[in-house]
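User: Let's play a game. I give you a shape written as tokens, and you guess the letters that built it. Ready? Here's round one.
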């Protein structure tokens, strides 16, 4: 069982009571609402299912959510072989961007890769300091600048340093909130253009960090970022501390973006790959005997 899904699973089990081989459609609907699956998605999921739903019925329905236009078109992260692999980390403040950067850096370092961090959230002195502390703790390099400096210039310097030092991975933090949304959008668009320029138009990744405790309400945030930047994948944080694990279905369906990993704690090693089959099995295990 995934640790991150523990609370959701427990909550569903408590709500449903004794597990049976089949479940009435209206009771399943209530259980899915309880797990914070978006209501529009519940309707879509249950629309063609019978009044008594078996494990197999629901499994087939859930599998559809992890596909693109056709059943064989699986939503997956596109491979990039640019060196260094640059990952721009975006999301609102408080979602866990800085800690996730540390977890990614730690993972790459454990794979014997040379990692460089870019402290690109120059609008918060605390974000720069926090990333410096993590870089020392993990033992990876960092490029930083003064509070209030131009984040695009920092991104360019970090990528240039990554190329010059033959780094395998460059992970760049970004601001999550400026004084209005237009400012944030313009700043992020500028950073992505500068990243493309520094990489001579080679591809790089834009990874969105979402706070799992926000449940389905994080989807509006995600849509805004995705419309701005065409995000490549999502990492969900803090899911181990919430019973809103059903929001994963909403995120996958609304955005058609791959979930790369799940953050499950505060430590540098607390990042697990998202396994679609394992997630579906856990979901079904919490409902059916």
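Assistant: Ready! My guess for every position:
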């Amino acid at each position: 069982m995934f640790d991150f899904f523990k609370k959701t699973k427990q909550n569903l089990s408590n709500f449903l009571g004794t597990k049976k081989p089949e479940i009435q459609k209206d009771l399943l609907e209530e259980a899915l609402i309880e797990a914070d699956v978006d209501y529009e998605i519940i309707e879509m999921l249950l629309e063609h299912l019978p009044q008594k739903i078996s494990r197999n019925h629901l499994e087939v329905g859930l599998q559809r959510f992890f596909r693109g236009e056709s059943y064989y078109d699986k939503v997956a992260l596109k491979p990039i072989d640019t060196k260094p692999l640059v990952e721009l980390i975006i999301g609102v403040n408080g979602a866990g961007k800085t800690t996730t950067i540390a977890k990614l850096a730690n993972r790459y370092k454990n794979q014997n890769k040379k990692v460089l961090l870019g402290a690109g959230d120059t609008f918060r002195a605390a974000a720069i300091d926090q990333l410096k502390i993590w870089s020392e703790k993990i033992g990876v390099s960092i490029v930083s600048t003064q509070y209030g400096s131009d984040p695009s210039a920092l991104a360019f310097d970090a990528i240039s340093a990554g190329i010059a030092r033959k780094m395998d991975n460059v992970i760049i933090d970004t601001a999550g909130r400026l004084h209005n949304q237009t400012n944030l959008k313009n700043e992020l668009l500028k950073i992505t253009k500068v990243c493309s320029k520094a990489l001579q138009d080679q591809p790089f990744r834009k990874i969105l960090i979402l706070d799992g405790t926000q449940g389905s309400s994080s989807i509006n945030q995600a849509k805004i970022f995705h419309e701005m930047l065409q995000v490549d994948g999502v990492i969900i944080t803090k899911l181990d501390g919430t019973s809103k694990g059903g929001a994963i279905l909403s995120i996958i369906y609304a955005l058609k973006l791959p979930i790369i990993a799940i953050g499950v704690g505060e430590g540098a090693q607390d990042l697990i790959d998202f396994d679609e089959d394992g997630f579906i099995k856990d979901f079904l295990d919490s409902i059916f005997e």
